[in-house]
Amino acid sequence: MSLKTRLSIQNTLAFRLTLWYAVIFSLSSGIAFLLFYTLVTSIVRDRTDQELLGQARRFSTILSNEGAEEVTKAMVIEAQAAGVRKVFFRLLYPNGQTFSSSNMAYWKDIPVNLNAIKQLLQGTSYVIETIVIPDRKQRVRILYALLSPGIAIQVGESMEGYSRFLDAFKVILIFTMGILLVVAAGVGWFMAKRAVSGVEAVTRTARKISANVLQERVPVKDTGDEIDLLAKTFNEMLDRIQSLVREVKEMSDNIAHDLKGPITRIRGAAEVTLTTSHSMGEYENMTASIIEECDRLLGMINTMLMISKTEAGVDKPSLEDVDISKLLMDTCELFLPVAEDKGISLSYDTPDAIHLNGDVRMIQRMLSNLLDNAIKYTPSGGKITVALAQNSSGTVLISVSDTGIGISPEELPHIFERFYRGDQSRSTSGIGLGLSLSMAIARAHGGDITATSISGRGSTFTITLPKTNPIVLEDGKLRG
Ligand code: ADP
Predict the structure, then answer these.
(1) Residue 446 CA, ligand 1 centroid: distance in Å
(2) What is the mean pLDDT of each run of 10 residues along the chain (480 residues)?
């Protein structure tokens, strides 16, 4: 089933992003258009009001200079000039009765607002109102002002022209908004699709991956954006999974290989004894060699279990104060006879009373592994030097150097892997687990082991251990 059919379009991130984009865009542009429309409307109304006030002032001047009759004449002329359906003028007595007016045939339904005249008499300089003529649904802006103490003027102007302008303006705004909305949704969809295309690539790769196909990688565009980071992180995760799967495979191959040898030998010995031997002594020899092989097998299985448990934090170090100077000296003394037997000089420099917090049994095992290797891989006449030091940051350093066969640069990165054995070491005894276990122990103590080596000239293994163990609380989490 394709990805597209699996996700219905409404569930896609691209659709939701587009929707959000369109909603936010239309809301903000709607608010902007509304503000603009309100502004234009108020400008139009202000202009009408200024016109009405201008008329009132002009008639007031004519009244005071030339008298009421001239005002009436001027009103008639003005109304005819502007259009009798556009403006009208009425002179009113303070009681609201009409004194004279322009042609009112078209405006006969317009009442006189007595309340407005009352306000004028109380001192208000002018009153403006908008009324709608019911039959015609026509809006009229009307101004009341006093021309003299006994005469008020009512000036009205039809807002029809402005209304038409505002209606057209409204239509244009709505139309433009509609177009913009469609464009915004299109742009939003395009941007969202582009943004999530990287996620789709990650999903596609993830779907192709199975235990056998781990080499697939998401294409990285090096744009440095979040999707790129996701792709890189995903690829890194795949690298780690791939190397883990490889390690597990190699390990199971190695286990199978290492178990096969002793079991074949056990079977062979039993078969040969059964078919050829008849004496008690031969049966005893066979039993002894089977016990030896079984011990070897058990040793290997126990070491594997110990590594796994230590790495998983199941076998936690039982922490106590360890006199590492003494422990190192004792371990070296233990190996001294073996080294001497092989004709190797073993010297150690262990300054007094360096203590650390650790598991004696585990640390001793780690030191033994390194010393055992040093002796194993150093030919007769060689030299092993063990040194102990502590630095000011509270770290203890133990180094084991030998003048042995050394490790080639190609092999060096692998020596801490489980079951790894160098080419030159295959002839010596060992199962390739000593260094893995040592590393697991060092890490369980919050420390590390590093190795440097020159092929044919010798190797140095350096253990670093913190004096106060930073690890292993009851819940298995690291302590700071
Ligand atoms: P083993 O010694 O049983 O083979 P280890 O895990 O102890 O397994 O070591 C892994 C490999 O590292 C060895 O097979 C060997 O090739 C290399 N190695 C470890 N210690 C030394 C050393 N001191 N000198 C040279 N090679 C070493």
Answers:
(1) 23
(2) 58 83 88 90 90 91 89 90 89 89 86 91 91 82 90 90 85 89 88 82 80 78 82 89 83 81 86 83 87 87 86 83 94 95 93 90 95 96 95 91 95 91 84 92 94 95 88 44
The DSSP output letter for 477 is P
CA distances (Å), 220 to each of 201, 205, 223, 224, 227, in order? 10, 12, 8, 9, 9
Taking alpha carbons only, the member of 393, 315, 387 closest to residue 346 is 387
* Domains of the chain by residue range: 3-166, 226-310, 317-478
CA of 326 to the centre of ligand 1 (A): 26
Query: Does the CB atom of residue 72 touch ligand 1 within 6 A?
Result: no
Q: What is the pLDDT of residue 416?
A: 94
How far is residue 377's CA from residue 381's CA, in Å, rounded to a whole number?
12
**Could you tell me the two tokens for 120?**
């004028």
pLDDT per residue over 179-192, tens digit each? 988 888 898 889 88
- CA of 92 from ligand 1 middle (Å) equals 119
| Length of the chain measured in residues | 480
Report strand pairing: 383-390 vs 395-402: antiparallel
- Cβ–ligand 1 distance for 425 under 6 Å, the answer yes
Q: What is the fold, at CATH topology level, of the domain defined by 3-166? A: Beta-Lactamase (3.30.450)
Query: Structure pTM?
Result: 0.56
In CATH, the architecture of 226-310 is: Orthogonal Bundle (1.10)
| Fold entry, domain 317-478 | Heat Shock Protein 90 (3.30.565)
Distance separating alpha carbons of residues 387 and 349, to the nearest angstrom: 5
Report which ligand 1 atom has the smallest distance to the Cα of 431. Answer: 3
Place of tokens 């009113």: 92
pLDDT at 2: 54
Q: In this predicted structure, what is the pLDDT of residue 478?
A: 43
Contacts of 321 (CB under 8 A, 6+ apart): 355, 356, 357
Contact by Cβ (8 Å): 455, 407: yes
pLDDT at site 206? 80
Nearest to 322 by CA among 353, 351, 358, 368: 358
Residue whose token pair is 């429309």: 37
Q: Which pLDDT does position 476 carry in this prediction? A: 42
Ligand 1 centroid distance, CA of 423 (Å): 10
DSSP character string of 228-297: HHHHHHHHHHHHHHHHHHHHHHHHHHHHHHHHHHHHHHHHHHHHHHHHH--SHHHHHHHHHHHHHHHHHH
